[in-house]
Amino acid sequence: MRYDKRNRTALDNLAPNTKAAAYKWYQFCLDNNIDILITETIRTKEKQAEYVAKGTSQTMRSWHLVGQALDFVPVTSTGGTDYTAYFQPDIQRAIAEAKRLGFKWGGDWSGGWDKPHLEYQYKGYGMDKKLEQAREDEEPMTAEEKKQFDELKELVKKQADTIKKLEKAVNVSGNQSPPEWSLKALEAAKKAGAITTTKDKSQSDLVNIQVLYNLGLFDPGIIKLINLNREEVRNAK
């Protein structure tokens, strides 16, 4: 690596977790003989304002300001820099590795206007304050893995909501207040001796009780006839 010392000095200025990921990426470049120059990492507000004024940056909320971004340029065989070489196979390999490690590449943005730029969003803007101690066998999540993980979390949340709705429908707790539409039927069923409590009924139970109520089967006169018939059957035996 032609500019190794300069590159390491720049990398050392990054925020802790960004620096750890950036050094893994830099080692990949070293191992694969991909020559690059890291032109900038941490940036002052004054420098950022200058870039915005020139039009080379579009925001005062740059990830460079919080040490979570770096700019790099491919280096030619003669030691020069080539800002047109980002789509050379070896540089694309380096960019793919950066993405695998969790970086976002400015060349993927609309218009691909910021090809030198790699940013490490970590847990959010300016949140890279303390180095996380990962297990030796633990690799940081790639952008695709993080996307899948976030989708899984959302799926789990939806399933939890569905389970709550089902628990409410079947009254798992056995202590759920019945809906207003079922109160008359439940009271009639309780007076008729068909049930002893109104709070342990599932949605299915409530519907069945309501049907019986609508048929008039909890009417005191009907209940009296049923009891008389039951007594006659008992006496006949």
What does this structure look like?
This protein has three domains: 125 residues, Muramoyl-pentapeptide Carboxypeptidase, domain 2 (2-Layer Sandwich), CATH 3.30.1380.10; 29 residues; 66 residues, no CATH class. The protein has a four-stranded antiparallel β-sheet with strand order 1-2-4-3. It contains eight helices and four strands. The longest helix is centred in the middle third of the chain and has 28 residues. The chain is rod-shaped and about 115 Å long. The protein is an alpha+beta fold.
Estimate the global geometry from the Cα principal axes.
rod-shaped
| DSSP summary: helix tally | 8
Strand sequence of the main sheet, in spatial order?
A: 1-2-4-3
Order of helices and strands: HHEHEHEEHHHH
What summary fits the major beta sheet?
A: 4 strands, antiparallel
Number of strands: 4
Question: What is the helical fraction, as a range of percent?
Answer: 40-55%
The CATH architecture of the largest domain would be 2-Layer Sandwich
Key attributes of the depicted protein:
single chain; alpha+beta; Muramoyl-pentapeptide Carboxypeptidase, domain 2; 4-stranded antiparallel beta sheet; rod-shaped
Short description:
The chain is an alpha+beta fold. It has helices at 4-11, 16-31, 45-54, 89-100, 143-170, 183-191, 203-214, 220-236, and strands at residues 36-40, 69-74, 104-105, 117-119.
